[in-house]
Protein 1
Amino acid sequence: MKISRFLIIAIAASTSFLTACTSEEEEASARHELVFQLGMGNAETRATPEGTWTVGDYIAVKVGNTVKQYIITSTDGKAKGINYDNTFYWEDLGESSIKVTAWSFGKDYYETLPSVITVKTDQSSTENYTASDFLYAKETTITKGAPLNLTFYHQMTCLGFHINIAEPVEVSSVVLGGDPDLGEDMPFIKVNYSAPTEDVTTGYYPDYGQCVIDYDDESIKGTIIAHKGENVGDAQTFTAILVPLSHNDNYELLPVFITLEDGTKFSFVLGIDVNLPVCEAGGRQFYTINIKNKKLSVSGTEAAGPAVSAQDWQ
């Protein structure tokens, strides 16, 4: 049987192509790739405000002065390099133990950790919401042969609302800020950030970096459209990610606007109708809102305290 010269060339080219495609994979498989298991505080595998890691989100992993782009590959928090060149290998590091830090802004990727953090003003989309959820894993020592665990902490703060409506109507939007009469008390969206570092005197290594508000920057405030999450029981849930405030920074008033799908609008002011939230890094608070007979109420009184639940953000 004759085989044409053209077919022979085609077969040879195909074989060469397959070899070129697999050589990189074969080299990688023969080396010891660093694949990380991600956790949230206390090694719990929870990350995003929805409670699970999001497949496809990026992690910047820093070893020494080198940063490589990793990607989350499973909802339980596995992360590996996006390609061969963006993967750490023990053979390249030449050490039996290394110091690692890492950070994540969802699908927004920063090779260099930003010194100014700005949360998104429209957090109604999932990508903007998770991009506002700045996660940082402080420096940890990882030893060859031991589990490759990175523990992340939310560096921002989360403010949420559980909205109970007697009538069968959905909430269209929840907006923080935007009242021209209360413009000076819009939520902060921008903050100067420095990563946590070890105290050389005490050896204490904080979980959270330092956030400083620059009041000379006119762009530090803005209106935030909250994100709609899964209902909690019968309550419709909306959350917004804000920059955290130190004890020297606070709100005096913070307006909140709720619009229903039938066009009905409600508003109230944190600091007048109910106590202001404590906007600490890594914390989240939920206010309970009740709407009945076209009237809105925020449960609780000044004496009894706000109708708000404070909890760790894991």
Note: The chain has two domains: 31-114+123-154, 157-312.
Protein 2
Amino acid sequence: MLFKIMARKENYEKYKKMLEQGGFIVSDDADLVLKELNSSIDNIVGKYRDRYEFIPYQEIVYIESFGHDVICHTLEKEYEIKEKLYEIEGLFEDKGFIRINKSCIVNKWQIKEIRPSFNMKLILIMKNNHKLEVTRSYYYQFKEFIGF
């Protein structure tokens, strides 16, 4: 069985050794994630033009999914990332990130404007001037999260 480990640097090797002794395989491509309690991850790794860069969570405007591709948008660049949308949602939920539709998570600190739309939907204008839609399924959860 494959596991991905999300832990502080000083504990990563300890967890890896324990899992491998138990017959498990540690891989960044695993669907099962072992996340250390009270661990704080402040960035993710993204691929931009054949090189990898650290992306601090504060710079992330939004993250969207297209099938198996996950794209992280900042003010200046778009990165491909390995993490799945639900993993990002769990990693950064306490840092102001929220899902607004089936394929998109936004950083609430990067919202420039919120406009009401038809059928209980909202349009978000992000600081990079991209327009995103909060669908009806996420409408009330988003309003509560923002504090409407």
Note: Residues 27 and 103 are 24 Å apart (CA to CA).
